[in-house]
Amino acid sequence: MKRIIVFGLLFVLFSCQNKEVLLPQANETIVADVKEHSPIYLYFKTEEKDTLIEVDETNSASSINKVFNIDKQLPLRRVILEIKKQQANKHSEKYFVYTDTVKKATAFLPFTKVKYNLEKPDFNVVYFYLDRNDLVHFKDEVFSKNELQTFLDKQSVPASSIVFAYDKGMSFGKYIQYQFFVKHLVAPKGITINSKKEYIY
Fold first, then answer.
1. Could you list the residue range(s) of the whole structural domain that residue 164 is in?
2. What percentage of the chain reaches a pLDDT higher than 90?
């Protein structure tokens, strides 16, 4: 019975349209409920060898909160292009929908204030680049993401703040996992992690 419940939570089902969204997963809840919201769906679609996004805004209203049900299989590069379009509407709070696998419930990750830059940071920005293979790139060094906290604890980072950049070729599901990974990092004393700015390239 438990397996059936978990399996069911992975999907947002639309029997009338015979479509489904395979939601990203995490093991904690950031926001448990969003009042007065309208849903936007980004479906995974393939056409020959291309991966496409099919967007459904049928039930979306401009003046209330928006929750984005995004298929975790979609490539990040395509998702973010759509998200940037949606951010043009400044009159609503915006959330990614995901499944909390511990509570076995739908949860929400806010991203209203995040500025997405679709380019490599310039030389003035101190950043860590997270790739699709769980590797971290910092200047000329490459190491496992599991070593990043140790790296931060031991290294002298020449900045008052750091940002994160993401591999545009990773899946949206991987990107959401990275969001929780970064959230739990502890920055060195005197340094802040700027969570309001991201680079994707």
1. 116-200
2. 76
